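[step 3/7] inverse_fold.run input=structure_tokens len=424
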């Protein structure tokens, strides 16, 4: 295999440090690389060995191609008739939904997702895929545009378009607590889509995933995501961008400030401390367990997946797996800001802490800090701590005893600057 890997690297030098999953030519090249790896009949075990081999970690395209090839081997190992449903929510997506030739920010993401799922399951007639697309209250008609595209593709039986507003109007149980679609920021729509997918097929051989509307995660990796569930070792599987063998190309500064977010939520709900990346928009569930996590929720916004994970862990401890995935930032038209959601997400997690867990003094100290903090204090705290956060790894931050509630409250004061370097 090594000769082939070296040959592919030489032929695809343009993908060494840059890969754009919104580019048709880049997608074609990385898919062809995966196909060539598969053509030599290498086993999943052999591909896994190459996935962790540091010799291939200096070529971005090769890393993604290996993951795609391994993912294909994972679905080939599924011998029973099975379904894969993929849910995603849309808000303000009328530009990204268009072809690149139609708009500067066009990603043509519906057609791209279809191509990726078709590639993954090609020649496996006992496996089928479905897309459940939910309009999260988009004022620009994302749902209507999606319906037109799907009709043009002739895939209305495989791809269903829904509106969260319709679920709320119908008093769907999964929409309980939402008066209208403005009460949702992604979370309500994902939960609605998951419930509709599970309603169609509640069997153990139905794998229900959710992803983001954009193309940051190649859906050819769904095989990697569902493998722990298909093998019976998990009921929920979380894609992660923070595992040793994750492949990440990221823009912006969310990574540094995200360290503090991760530190804080782990103080509140340590039951999920075996996870690091709870916010990767790439997760899968065995359809038969969704009823345990979808109903009687307290969160319909950006922290929704943390609640689903927490409810899943409390109901069936040790049945959540994490999977190292490739994630290439598609940030041109992101519908979330770099730092905006963090405080609101933490406030939602405080509610989860009070709603689901036995209270303790340590966690309650952080809960009190977060619940009383306003946006100005939060921004001040981030500004004060960011130089220290940038100096240390996430592991060092998580192991630190320096970020106690009293210290964080001090750093949030308008005139305060830390008088000494935080030591991790």
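[step 3/7] decode complete -> sequence:
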């Amino acid at each position: 295999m090594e000769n082939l890997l070296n040959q592919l690297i030489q032929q695809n030098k343009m993908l060494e440090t840059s890969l754009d999953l919104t580019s048709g030519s880049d997608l074609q090249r990385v898919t062809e690389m995966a196909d060539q790896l598969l053509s030599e009949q290498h086993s999943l075990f052999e591909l896994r060995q190459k996935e962790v081999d540091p010799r291939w970690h200096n070529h971005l395209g090769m890393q993604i191609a290996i993951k795609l090839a391994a993912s294909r081997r994972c679905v080939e190992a599924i011998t029973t008739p099975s379904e894969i449903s993929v849910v995603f929510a849309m808000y303000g997506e009328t530009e990204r939904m268009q072809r690149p030739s139609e708009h500067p920010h066009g990603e043509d993401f519906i057609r791209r997702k279809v191509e990726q799922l078709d590639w993954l399951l090609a020649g496996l007639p006992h496996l089928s895929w479905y897309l459940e697309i939910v309009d999260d209250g988009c004022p620009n008609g994302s749902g209507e545009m999606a319906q037109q595209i799907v009709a043009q593709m002739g895939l209305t039986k495989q791809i269903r378009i829904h509106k969260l507003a319709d679920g709320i109007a119908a008093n769907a149980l999964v929409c309980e607590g939402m008066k209208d679609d403005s009460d949702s920021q992604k979370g309500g729509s994902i939960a609605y889509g998951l419930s509709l997918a599970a309603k169609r097929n509640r069997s153990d051989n139905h794998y229900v995933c959710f992803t983001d509307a954009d193309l940051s995660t190649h859906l050819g990796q769904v095989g990697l995501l569902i493998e722990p569930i298909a093998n019976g070792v998990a009921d929920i599987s979380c894609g992660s961008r923070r595992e040793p063998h994750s492949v990440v190309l990221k823009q912006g500064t969310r990574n540094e400030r995200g360290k503090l977010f991760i530190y804080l939520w782990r103080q509140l709900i340590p039951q999920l401390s075996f996870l690091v990346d709870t916010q990767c928009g790439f997760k899968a569930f065995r359809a038969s367990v969704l009823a345990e996590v979808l109903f009687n929720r307290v969160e319909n916004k950006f922290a929704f997946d943390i609640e689903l994970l927490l409810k899943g862990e409390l109901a069936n401890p040790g049945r959540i797996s994490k999977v190292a995935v490739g994630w290439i930032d598609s940030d041109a038209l992101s519908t979330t800001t770099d730092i905006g959601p963090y405080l609101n997400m933490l406030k939602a997690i405080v509610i989860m802490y009070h709603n689901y867990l036995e209270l303790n003094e340590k966690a309650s100290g952080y809960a009190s800090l977060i619940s009383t903090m306003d946006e100005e204090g939060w921004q001040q705290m981030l500004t004060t701590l960011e130089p220290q956060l940038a100096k240390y790894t996430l592991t060092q931050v998580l192991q630190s005893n320096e970020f106690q509630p009293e210290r964080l409250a001090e750093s949030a004061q308008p005139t305060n600057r830390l008088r000494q370097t935080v030591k991790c």
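[step 4/7] annotate
The chain has three domains: 1-77, 78-241+277-339, 342-411.
Residues 78-241+277-339 form a domain with the Spore Coat Polysaccharide Biosynthesis Protein SpsA; Chain A fold (CATH 3.90.550.10).
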